[in-house]
Known about the structure:
Layout: H1 7-14, E1 15-16, E2 25-31, H2 41-48, H3 51-54, E3 57-62, H4 67-75, E4 81-85, H5 86-95, E5 101-106, E6 113-118, E7 133-135, H6 141-152, E8 161-163, H7 167-175, E9 181-185, H8 186-195, E10 203-207, E11 218-223, H9 224-229, H10 231-250, H11 252-260, H12 268-283, H13 286-291, H14 298-311, H15 320-323
Parallel strand pairs: 2-3, 2-4, 7-8, 7-9
Antiparallel strand pairs: 1-2, 4-11, 5-11, 6-9, 6-10
Helix pairs in contact: 2-10, 2-11, 6-14, 8-12, 10-11, 11-12
Amino acid sequence: MFHRLTAAAFAAATAVTLSGAALAQTAFPFALDWKFEGPAAPYFVALDKGYFKDAGLSVEITEGAGSLDAIPKVATGAFPVGFADINSLMRFLDQNPGAPVTAVMMIYDKPPFAVIGRKSQGVSTPADLAGKKLGAPPPDGAWAQFPIFAAENGLDMASITVDPVGFPVREPMLAQGNVDAITGFSFTSTLNLKRLQVPADDISTILMADHGVALYGNAIIANTDYAKAHPAEITAFLKAVAMGWKDAVAAPATAVEALLKRNPAADPALETARLQMAIDDNVLTDWVKTNGLGAIDDARMAKAIEQTATVYSFKTAPDAKLYFDAGYLPADGLKIE
Length: 337
């Protein structure tokens, strides 16, 4: 059972009154799923440009260690909002019925789940994975969806040797030839390999979404107890997030400058390329160009649940309403082009 921090107590503990004529700023911690890399830049843009502040929110952004790290942080009430894979959220809610957490804004309309291989080691297509060694961190969102990818492409899981590697050694092991392929987010693993001096023409990035996987990707998640008590704050936060993404789409290199303030050791060119990959492949899809950022297509979500059910045994009947609530999205839509 999850400890629930009541909305009233949370607000009382986190409201900060500023001096002078300034309005009270509500402390609003935001839990990322991963490190401060290129795709996190839009949130720092929103922070630096005052979009959160203008919404009355004092946002502090923290790094994460995967979706399975971010989801419990929000479910327990430690964070009102976070960023996590909606598919991992489905399974979490099935295993923890009644946990007060749901997705409220889709960011990765096309998920970055990928298998990244070395062509020199014989991995260029899904079929090439048979008989190969795959490095897969157990908490990895892409690994969680790999059985769906395997089923959609007729792969026999028994024909693949799976090495449960840790996140820090995943790309180095592939760069050193200790595994033939890895699971990961396309923009993370591909560019990390380039940083490790793996030639670009030797890297095969196989997006699961291009090979039969209908799933959605990462979304803004919210503690439902908090959201029900403070709907205006959640909506204001989502609008500020969209403004940050809009600015990042317009000027990725400028957006990365905000990231570098928090991660000065990062390579500006690499992180700009990482952000651009996320924009092109995952965020600014044709559906988002037409419908705006944040919402989902009900029919596609139903298909995603069906695919999940082929490889995961739900304890209770899956219900899309538990996994995504569009009620907090701004009514005027969120165009980001």
